[in-house]
Amino acid sequence: MAENEDGSEKTEGASSKKLQDARNKGNLPRSKDLSSALLLIVAAVTIYATGTLLVRDLAALFDFNFIVERADVFDLSRMIFHLYVSVVTMMDSMLLMMSILAAAGIVGSIALGGLNFSWEPLTPKLSKLNPIAGLKRMFSVQSLVELFKSIAKVTLVGFIAFIVLSYFLPETLGLTFQSIQVAIANGIDIIIWSFIFVALALVLIAAIDVPFQIWSHKEKLKMTKQEVKDEFKQQEGDPLVKGRIRQMQRQAAMSRMMSDVPKADVIITNPTHFSVALKYDQSGGEAPILLAKGGDFIALKIREVGNHYDIPVIQSPALARAVYHHTEVGDEIPNGLFKVVAQLLAYVYQLRNARTGAPRPEVMPDLDVPDEFRWDGS
Fold first, then answer.
1. What does the angle CA 207 – CA 211 – CA 213 come to, to the nearest 5 degrees?
2. How many other CB atoms sit within 10 Å of the CB of residue 41?
3. Is this entry keyworded Membrane (predicted)?
């Protein structure tokens, strides 16, 4: 089982964040054997498909270079011309094959792990120059596994190649007694079949290597339980820190709310459990706004601030509970409470005007809260 540097066991699978970080660093499962097998198979198929064209061009090229006038041999410009024509002819013949093989090489390299681009592997690291770390990598378990894999691959591919060459040896030796065009055609057939058999050997190796690389990659990225906890804290935040932040936010919000209480036109109480402070802008407000609300201790503080600033404090349990449970601080009161709040504000304004000599209202209006806004405590 994988272990961390401190000896703790890595028993947990890699998180999505660790997988993404590894991908950003270019750390992906790759299989060189898969790329090699695909490249050989595509090469064999391409040679087989374009064999006729290749044989024709090669035969023409041999004729062009072996049938040379004596004067051309001593003329440097003619020799350069021969070289130029030979290169152009071969480029025309090999361009399609080279393009297909280049595409196959790219596909083979990204077939496992997908396409990814990262500058991280190119970044110079002084740790790579540490000879002690280099020796550890050379004699690590991973290096030994790779060494045995390489020996096994060379042995298998060499054995298959030996069988194929032994089988085609008579035909290969017979090419010297054939005409150029026939020898080229038969030689290409031998090459194609050799590619196919060697590629099949690499396919077998790739079938073993691909699952191993996937498993090895997952094992390397495994995490300890502590690493999982630490990552969760980094992403979600330490519960103690988050709790402290929420407490500070509540305190800041409470402070702002209490600072708005002196602006209220009226405070409605339960009378002990709830208090709400309302403000109505007569110059253009559409509806009264809830400046502050609170229960128990906060309700008491709202009443104390209201008494300190000589704000009318009205006892109406049903209306206080309705506003408290159906309105958030800073929002307008619901439409269904417009009428009853308007009656209360009219009464408050009459009380305020009575201080300047206007008639004082005798009785507070009956504040009838609609049934849908009544709160029974359930």
1. 110
2. 19
3. yes
325, 295 Cβ separation under 8 angstroms: no
Starting from the edge strand earliest in sequence, which strands make up the sheet with 266-269, in order? 289-295, 274-279, 266-269, 313-315
CB-based contacts of 318, cutoff 8 Å, min separation 6: 367, 369, 374
Mean pLDDT of the chain: 78
Percent of the chain with pLDDT over 90: 0
pLDDT in tens, 316-368: 888 888 888 888 888 888 888 888 888 888 888 888 777 777 777 667 777 78
Q: How far is 10 from 316, CA to CA, in rounded Å?
A: 63
Residue 159 CA to residue 155 CA, distance in Å, equals: 6
Give every CB contact of residue 277 below 8 A, 6+ residues apart in sequence. Answer: 260, 261, 264, 266, 267, 290, 291, 292, 293, 302, 306, 311
CB atoms inside a 10 Å sphere around CB 304: 14
Residues in the chain: 378
Host H or E run for residue 355: none
Residue 301 has pLDDT above 80, yes or no: yes
Q: Which residues pair with 313 in a beta bridge?
A: 267
Query: Going by DSSP bridges, is the β-strand pair 266-269/274-279 parallel, antiparallel, or unpaired?
Result: antiparallel
For residue 295, the SS3 value is strand
- Could you tell me the sign of the dihedral formed by the alpha carbons of 152, 158, 159, 161, in that order? positive
Residues 6+ apart with CB under 8 A from 370: 336, 337, 340
Domains and CATH numbers, the chain: 16-234 (no CATH), 260-373 (3.40.1690.10)
